[in-house]
Automatic annotation (TrEMBL):
It comes from Candidatus Cellulosilyticum pullistercoris. This is Rrf2 family transcriptional regulator. Pfam families: Rrf2. Coiled coil: none annotated. One of its GO terms (cellular component) is cytosol. It comes from the Bacteria. GO terms for molecular function: DNA-binding transcription factor activity. Signal peptide: none annotated.
Length: 167
């Protein structure tokens, strides 16, 4: 299983939006410049985040993007689902029904009425990951990064850089 780089881009860039005042917004260009990433790709990521209701577009000359929800209500899972979609990671094709030893016109109940155990295990694993990612919020990430990980000088420099670019 592999998440696209869009999930990483989203998490890192949303982190910088946590401190925005209600009337303020940040431009994709500034987020992309700060992170050293593709503005074009980040625009596509932000379109998905907007569609999912995680962020909102702020129109106008001084427009940009702002969080549409509080950081406490935005989970890692919300972001993963916004970027990757909501299809299950594991897609069961029921190949067990193609077993050469079976009569295709008269499949036994074990192959038609019982769930595929492989599918069951994979969906359980996905649900466990989902439950865990639902416990991690943008507010949690902000606290961990800015209050426990980054040196104070880097935190201050980051906040200052964004305060000079925020609309």
């Amino acid at each position: 299983m592999k998440f696209s780089v869009g999930v990483e881009y989203a998490l890192h860039c949303l982190l910088y939006m946590v401190n925005l005042e209600d009337s303020k917004s940040v431009r994709i260009r500034d987020l992309a410049t700060f992170q050293g990433i593709s503005e074009t790709y980040l625009s596509k990521v932000y379109a998905k985040l907007t569609k999912s209701g995680i962020i909102k577009s702020v129109p106008g000359v001084k427009g940009g993007y702002a969080l549409a929800k509080t950081p406490e209500k935005i989970t890692f899972w919300d972001i993963v689902e916004a970027i990757e979609g909501n299809e299950h990671f594991f897609q069961c094709a029921e190949i067990r029904q193609n077993n050469i030893l079976l009569d295709k016109d008269n499949l036994p109940d074990t192959h038609t009425k019982c769930p595929c155990l492989i599918k069951v295990v994979m969906l359980e694993a996905e649900n466990e990951m989902k439950k865990y990612l639902e416990t991690k919020t943008l507010a949690w990430l902000y606290d961990e990064v800015y209050n426990h990980t980054l040196p104070k000088s880097m935190k201050n420099a980051t906040l200052e850089w964004f305060s000079n670019t925020i609309n």
